[in-house]
């Protein structure tokens, strides 16, 4: 897969396997939900890793603007007086004021200032100033935030536009096509999974040749399929090409515009967009990654990063401790094959330290969904004795209550096995990955 990080692949893959195992895919865990359409099966699934580099709405819109994508005119403010100034400067018929937080459900949220709603429409700039005063510096609680809410540091003041028609458009990296694909539907503004499930004939797809880019005929065909008529068709095709430019420019793995709408004045506008980024491209997307606002990120992932571990939360019940994304994918598949589902993954990098193993166990077991732990460490350079020591220490100090299955392969395996056996702890040894997955799934079923 082109320009796609292993971690992305892992999320993608892990989620594909888990969603196949269960129709009840993880839904709406957080704002960082990543959508993948199973294009070939015309079936949709929502998969939700816990965290992703997630930009605020105004940040995404700035990136879009820079690529010439049509968005509503807007300003950003971090004080009420600036918000008021911005509202005046917009000189718009109607203004929309939006609190900038990552979590969804803003419209129905409540501020601890007493103000209801993180999104307000008004025609009066003075009202924008008044409302901003009750937003900035206060916590906004929505269905997706922690119960104390998230502090609002920025508001977006934008021109409100009427929408006469809403469509859905996305560009994403698709595994089955080995590259980017455009997906669109004339049924926008709603849950695209639902559209795909109830009216799959309204989902259109165009495979993009990575060398050629989006061809004119493709862009026009997509625009027509989205239901744009007359001069709007060209405009929409133009927007589609610009969105693809953006996709390439920022190393996105997905750009989703919902809705891509038209106004009564005959303008095609991207009203809302979600951009996911390839985290392997961080080295050349410094400006994008610098926008990452850690205050809303998953504390488990942050804690993991502190110990040089990568954590990915999923919705099953088997915690997985592995080294390498490839091994994580294989582990996920085989757990799935045996009828289980991973709860999470912790990826141990190269240079293993005992303390790291201990911290890894702490993180894995902190997840209340976890009913069993599977350790699958494999590699010529891994000193398994260190891992075994870390495991026994963690088991004792954390008073591990769930079944633990361990498969270690590398150097010092004999030593590692001795450490585990002599510990007297109830650890199930496994010979290989298949054996380990089978035993972990069986351990849960037994309980
Ligand atoms: C407001 O939200 C922040 C997180 O952004 C949190 O740390 C803080 O405790 C909250 N404050 C109140 C008063 O609830
Ligand atoms: C095997 O473990 C011992 C101590 O447990 C250590 O001294 C030795 O370096 C290890 N061997 C390798 C190849 O890591």
Automatic annotation (TrEMBL):
One of its GO terms (molecular function) is ATP binding. Pathway: Carbohydrate metabolism; tricarboxylic acid cycle; succinate from succinyl-CoA (ligase route): step 1/1. It is found in: Mitochondrion. Its EC number is 6.2.1.4. GO terms for cellular component: mitochondrion; succinate-CoA ligase complex. Substrate binds at residues 323, 380-382. Keywords: ATP-binding, GTP-binding, Ligase, Magnesium, Metal-binding, Mitochondrion, Nucleotide-binding, Signal, Tricarboxylic acid cycle. It catalyses: GTP + succinate + CoA = succinyl-CoA + GDP + phosphate. It comes from the Eukaryota. It is an enzyme of class 6 (ligase). The record marks 94, 162 as: Important for substrate specificity. GTP binds at residues 72, 105-107, 161. The keyword Lipid biosynthesis does not apply. The keyword Ligase applies. HAMAP family: Succ_CoA_beta, Succ_CoA_betaG_euk. GTP-specific succinyl-CoA synthetase functions in the citric acid cycle (TCA), coupling the hydrolysis of succinyl-CoA to the synthesis of GTP and thus represents the only step of substrate-level phosphorylation in the TCA. The beta subunit provides nucleotide specificity of the enzyme and binds the substrate succinate, while the binding sites for coenzyme A and phosphate are found in the alpha subunit. Heterodimer of an alpha and a beta subunit. The beta subunit determines specificity for GTP. Belongs to the succinate/malate CoA ligase beta subunit family. GTP-specific subunit beta subfamily. PANTHER family: SUCCINATE--COA LIGASE [GDP-FORMING] SUBUNIT BETA, MITOCHONDRIAL, SUCCINYL-COA SYNTHETASE BETA CHAIN. This is Succinate--CoA ligase [GDP-forming] subunit beta, mitochondrial. It comes from Cynoglossus semilaevis (Tongue sole). The lineage of its organism: Eukaryota, Metazoa, Chordata, Craniata, Vertebrata. The gene is SUCLG2.
């Amino acid at each position: 897969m082109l320009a796609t990080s292993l971690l992305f692949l892992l999320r993608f893959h892990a989620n594909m396997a888990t969603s196949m195992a269960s129709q009840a895919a993880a839904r709406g865990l957080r704002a960082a939900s990543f959508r993948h359409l199973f294009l070939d099966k015309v079936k949709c699934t929502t998969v939700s890793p816990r965290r992703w580099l997630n930009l605020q709405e105004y940040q995404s819109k700035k990136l879009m603007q820079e690529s010439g994508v049509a968005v509503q005119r807007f300003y950003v403010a971090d004080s009420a007086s600036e918000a008021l100034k911005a509202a005046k400067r917009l000189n718009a018929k109607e203004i929309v004021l939006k609190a900038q937080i990552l979590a969804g459900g803003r419209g129905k949220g409540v501020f601890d200032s007493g103000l209801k709603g993180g999104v307000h429409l008004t025609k009066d700039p003075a009202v924008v100033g008044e409302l901003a005063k009750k937003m900035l510096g206060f916590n906004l609680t929505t269905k997706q935030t922690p119960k104390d809410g998230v502090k609002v540091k920025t508001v977006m003041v934008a021109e409100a536009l009427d929408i006469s028609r809403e469509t859905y458009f996305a560009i994403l990296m698709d595994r089955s096509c080995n590259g980017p694909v455009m997906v669109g539907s004339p049924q926008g503004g709603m849950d695209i999974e639902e559209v795909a499930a109830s009216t799959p004939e309204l989902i259109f797809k165009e495979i993009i040749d990575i060398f050629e880019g989006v061809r004119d005929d493709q862009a026009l065909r997509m625009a027509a399929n989205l239901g744009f008529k007359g001069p709007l068709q060209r405009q929409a095709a133009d927007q589609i090409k610009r969105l693809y430019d953006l996709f390439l420019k920022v190393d996105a793995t997905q750009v989703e515009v919902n809705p891509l709408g038209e106004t009564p004045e005959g303008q095609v506008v991207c009203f809302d967009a979600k951009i996911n980024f390839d985290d392997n491209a961080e080295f050349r997307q410094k400006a994008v990654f610098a926008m990452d606002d850690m205050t809303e990120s998953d504390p488990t992932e942050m804690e993991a990063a502190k110990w040089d571990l990568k954590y990915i939360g999923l919705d099953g019940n088997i915690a997985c401790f592995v080294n390498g994304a490839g091994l994580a994918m294989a582990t996920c598949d085989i757990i799935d094959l045996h009828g289980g589902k991973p709860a999470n993954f912790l990826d141990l990098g190269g240079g293993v330290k005992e303390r790291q193993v201990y911290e890894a166990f702490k993180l894995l077991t902190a997840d209340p969904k976890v009913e069993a732990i599977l350790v699958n460490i494999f590699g010529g350079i891994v000193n398994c004795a260190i891992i075994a020591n870390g495991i026994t220490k963690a088991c004792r100090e954390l008073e591990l209550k769930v079944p633990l299955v361990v498969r270690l392969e590398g150097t010092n395996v004999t030593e590692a096995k001795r450490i585990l056996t002599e510990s007297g702890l109830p650890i199930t040894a496994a010979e290989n990955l298949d054996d380990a997955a089978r035993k972990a799934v069986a351990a849960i079923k037994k309980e």
